[in-house]
Amino acid sequence: MNLIEQLPITQNLLYIIAGVYVLLCLATIIVSLMRRGQTQEKHLELWLRVKSWWYMITIFTFAICINRTLSVIFLGLISYLALKEYLSMIPTRRADRRVLFWAYIAIPIQYYWVYSGWYGMFIIFIPVWVFLFLPFRMVLKGETDGFLKAIGTLNWGLMMTVFSLSHAAYLIVLPETASEHHTPVFDKSGAALLFLLVLLTQFNDVAQYVWGRLIGGPKIIPKVSPGKTWAGFLGGMVSTALLSMLLSLVISPMSLHMAALAGIIISFTGFIGDVTISAVKRDLKVKDTGSTIPGHGGLLDRVDSLTYTAPIFFHFLRYFYY
Amino acid sequence: MIIANHNSHLDTLVILSLFPLSLLPRVRPVAAADYFLRNPLLAWFATKIIGIIPIQRTSKGGNPLHQAFEALRNDEVLIIYPEGSRGDPEELTKFKKGISLISKKFPDVPITPLFLHGLGKALPKGDAVFVPFFCDIFVGDAQFWDGEKDRFMQKLEAQITDLSKQGHFPEWI
């Protein structure tokens, strides 16, 4: 018991993490059974995906269980890799190398505001300071050909990969219990909120995929994302709302109704995040945003839904509870 | 022997990182003496840490490739950038013929062509600020000396150009 008290997480969250590992074991067994007696290639991508889930869930568990500093650094690193993937994927200008350098510098600063729990700075730093500074830096270089496109694509990338994703990190410091002399004290329930967001978002991705494959039927926006069906969307929404109701009572301040609403919001906005990144990939004529995670594609392919769910879930919670 | 396109100082470090640690002392990048030996600190780093084989780019008598031949005789791996210079970032230039002189003398040594993408964006010639980008390396089939210099050079150039077409790279102007 003493050991658990030293961790930056609540005991209830530990039970939920254990539950996630049980689910993961089940998924591994099911996919192994599907592959048994088949050739190596059969369901290979599915197998790679499950294997990658083991790595991702273990790394994430460590990142939130050791201490709060590590959690924030970890999420900052995710933002960095996502931005790097984005900037490597889109057309950029040679003249803007230094501008991109400053865009990267914004990441540690933004995550420092998160770490210190300085909400006012956290919420304006990227949309005000960075978005005003980068065009200025770009103008100093004097290259006007393609200026609008360059600054537009850079700002949008920062918005998705840094500003949006840093909301997930801010959940850790959201439940502030007391503030004395500008040194806020954070309680342990913040890590649980972060875990809830990530779990519901990723669960919704999987649930939409599974329901879509099981039922099929009419597609929602075939031009952007041919795999997305109405059945998958609605099935995912119901599943995520149910899971949200189950978990939120244990690790969040939400009531049953609000938890269901949170599940629906995460499911809906997760879908938007997913198809938004899909639209970018279609535009750039690439299949995946990278090849960092075997079976999943790039990192941005994995956190696409999170770019929408993180800020919206955050503001939902903050408005009603904190 | 490894040949690759050259756009950045990072090229050598990245290629070295592909080798197992135990092999590293035997991997020798061939590099310009006038550039890397221009001051004692850089010279120490280049020869003692990286283990370059310095080449005199301007003739001062004697065979400038002498040390490269010696290294191949000792079973070492050479990294050669046939473009001769980093040049403009992310652009291929015409290969210098030194590689054919080496290959003619050592026809049994396989030449593995690499195409590196993105390093010229991360740290191009003439810039000191490193900007992160994901980079790709494409490895081609090994080649051997085929007896005729011009045809051989054309084959190597064509192969690296083909490798560069395997990737899907965003525009960078």
Walkthrough of the structure:
The complex is a heterodimer of chains A (322) and B (173). Chain A is globular, with a radius of gyration of 20 Å. Chain A contains twelve helices and two strands, in the order H-H-H-H-H-H-H-E-E-H-H-H-H-H. With 322 residues, chain A is an all-alpha fold. Chain A has a domain at 68-187. Chain B is an alpha/beta fold and 173 residues long. Chain B has one domain (2-166). Chain B is 35% helix and 15% strand. Chain B is globular. The relative contact order of chain B is 0.20. Chains A and B meet through helix 4 and helix 5 of A and loops of B.
Give the topology.
The complex is a heterodimer of chains A (322) and B (173).
Chain A: H1 2-6, H2 11-35, H3 44-65, H4 68-89, H5 97-116, H6 119-141, H7 147-173, E1 176-180, E2 183-186, H8 189-215, H9 230-251, H10 256-284, H11 299-303, H12 306-321
Antiparallel strand pairs in A: 1-2
Helix pairs in contact in A: 2-3, 3-4, 4-5, 4-7, 5-6, 5-7, 6-7, 7-8, 7-12, 8-9, 8-10, 8-12, 9-10, 10-12
Chain B: E1 2-4, H1 10-17, E2 27-32, H2 33-36, H3 40-50, E3 53-55, H4 66-73, E4 77-80, H5 98-105, E5 112-117, H6 119-122, E6 136-139, H7 149-166
Q: Can you give me a brief rundown of this structure?
A:
Chain A has 322 residues and is mainly alpha-helical.
Q: Profile the largest sheet of chain A.
A: 2 strands, antiparallel
How much of the sequence of chain B is in beta strands? 15-25%
**Could you name the ranges of chain B where pLDDT drops below 50 across 5 or more consecutive residues?**
none
The overall pLDDT of chain B, averaged over residues, is 89
Structural class of chain B: alpha/beta
Total domains of chain B: 1
Q: How large is the radius of gyration of chain B?
A: 16 Å
Q: What is the CA–CA distance across the termini of chain A?
A: 29 Å
Work out the helicity level of chain B: 25-40%
User: Largest sheet of chain A, order of strands side by side?
Assistant: 1-2
Spatial strand sequence of the major β-sheet of chain B: 3-2-4-1-5-6
Radius of gyration of chain A: 20 Å
- E-strand count of chain A: 2
Mean pLDDT of chain A: 90
Let me know the number of strands of chain B.
Answer: 6
Helix percentage range of chain A = over 70%
